[in-house]
Amino acid sequence: PRQSFVMVKGAARLLPAEEPPRAEPPPAGPPCQAPGQQEQHLHLMMQLLRPQDAIRLAVRLESARPRRVRYLLVVRPEEAGAEAETALLGVDFTHEGATHCTLGMVLPLWSDTQVFLDGDG
User: Fold this and answer.
1) Judging by beta carbons within 10 Å of its beta carbon (0-12, 13-18, 19+), is residue 109 exposed, middle or buried?
2) Would you say the pTM of this structure is higher than 0.70?
3) Cβ-based neighbour number of residue 40 at 10 Å
4) In this predicted model, which residue has the larger pLDDT, 82 or 2?
């Protein structure tokens, strides 16, 4: 299935199927980031998911390690009423041009879940 994203400054948001992609200026990525690198990262991260899952939001995080690239994903199945199956995923790339990624965290979001992110990033 085709998925459309809007990407702005290290964050990507899934567009609903009925909404056409908006014309946005290209994001001003860090100087070390090659053109299209964020799209490549999204493609690799989507390969980690089950076929019925979709990335609702992807945010690039600051990493404590200089070369490591980290993303926080909000993921849930595409079928209607699947909000109860939403999860946060932590995805790591060993460096900017890595050709594979690893899943470092899976946190299911239940109706009574409270998530607090701490730090200066």
Assistant:
1) middle
2) no
3) 15
4) 82
